[in-house]
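Archive entry. Fields below.
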Amino acid sequence: DAGVIQSPRHEVTEMGQEVTLRCKPISGHNSLFWYRQTMMRGLELLIYFNNNVPIDDSGMPEDRFSAKMPNASFSTLKIQPSEPRDSAVYFCASRVAGGEDTQYFGPGTRLTVL
Amino acid sequence: GQQVMQIPQYQHVQEGEDFTTYCNSSTTLSNIQWYKQRPGGHPVFLIQLVKSGEVKKQKRLTFQFGEAKKNSSLHITATQTTDVGTYFCAGRTSGTYKYIFGTGTRLKVLA
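PREDICTED_STRUCTURE:
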């Protein structure tokens, strides 16, 4: 298995632009998580989906952030408009609910907003 | 809200020395997981603890879950340069899918 796939790996954009981050979870996994990592705030859970349905989005910073999971093999995290304080590494993780509960993280997208 | 703190924040050790990081939750946990993140990498699952007082070992790594299920520790015996990275605990409370990650302990091993 290729693991969790994220794209792009690096994104540099200017303030005010729309940014879309993409994630392909591991096949067969039914839970998907979006995290943001910064030096100041550590690893924060933004939103998680179970069976493609958003269960908890309480970690989404504000209305500029939105996430979708149209099917079991694809999710997006969109920031519109982007701001310099959104600069961070964004991780997607997937797992099979129950059992060992292991979260498998993707390689992350390093976002820089100028 | 639930908080998970780790100490120390940073630790520098000489190769061969032991290392311990401690994880403390503000609430009782259903289970706790540990992850390792290499510099520039992504968190990688190490282990999960579920039972009160549980102790698990993986080669030189020993993981412990407190009796009250509010704290946990990771101990590395005789560190090696390959142990470099940040170690995170992540706790889940009963009735939720959500894991709250700790603040992490960054380990540097000096050869």
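CURATOR_NOTE: Chain A is about 0% helix and 55% strand.
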